[in-house]
């Protein structure tokens, strides 16, 4: 097991990148949830990019955390995307059917 480490970096005005290192699993998904929630609810972010380049493993609790982060961001009007998933993480996200949801920007709702 590899410890989870999160590091935030301002990309530009209103855009924040949260880099995650290690494994995202049941043992530490709560810490990731807390980090994502704090950034979204702080009120000064227009876009949150979750960088998975250094994530070596993700399980269902990690996937759930990423999806809940997306839903919370949408509720706050914040763009939310994941980026750079490694091959194995990308495969897990793809097999579970959430890769597209998490890597594509949300579409504006079309009201009739």
List keywords for this structure.
112 residues; Transcription Regulator spoIIAA; 4 helices; 31% strand; alpha/beta
The whole-angstrom Rg is 13 Å
What's the N-to-C terminus distance?
50 Å
The strand line-up of the biggest sheet is 1-2-3-4
> How many distinct beta strands?
4
Mean pLDDT: 91
Per CATH, the superfamily is STAS domain
Shape designation: globular
CATH topology: Transcription Regulator spoIIAA
Helix content, binned percent? 25-40%
CATH class: Alpha Beta
User: What structural class results from the helix and strand content?
Assistant: alpha/beta
Describe this structure in words.
With 112 residues, this protein is α/β, with parallel strands linked by helices. 38% of the residues lie in helices and 31% in strands. The protein is built from four helices and four strands. It has helices at residues 29-41, 60-75, 87-95, 99-103; strands at 5-12, 15-24, 47-58, 79-83. Strands 1-2-3-4 form a four-stranded mixed sheet. α1 links the parallel β2 (15-24) and β3 (47-58). α1 runs parallel beside α2.
């Amino acid at each position: 097991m590899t410890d989870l480490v999160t590091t935030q970096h301002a990309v530009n005005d209103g855009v924040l990148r949260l880099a995650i290192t290690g494994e995202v699993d049941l043992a530490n998904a709560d810490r990731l949830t807390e980090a994502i929630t704090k950034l979204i609810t702080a009120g000064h972010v227009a876009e949150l990019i979750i960088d998975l380049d250094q994530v070596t493993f993700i399980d269902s609790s990690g996937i759930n955390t990423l999806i809940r982060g997306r839903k919370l961001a949408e509720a706050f009007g914040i763009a939310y995307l994941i980026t750079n998933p490694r091959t194995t993480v990308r495969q897990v996200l793809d097999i579970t059917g959430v890769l597209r949801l998490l890597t594509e920007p949300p579409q504006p709702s079309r009201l009739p």
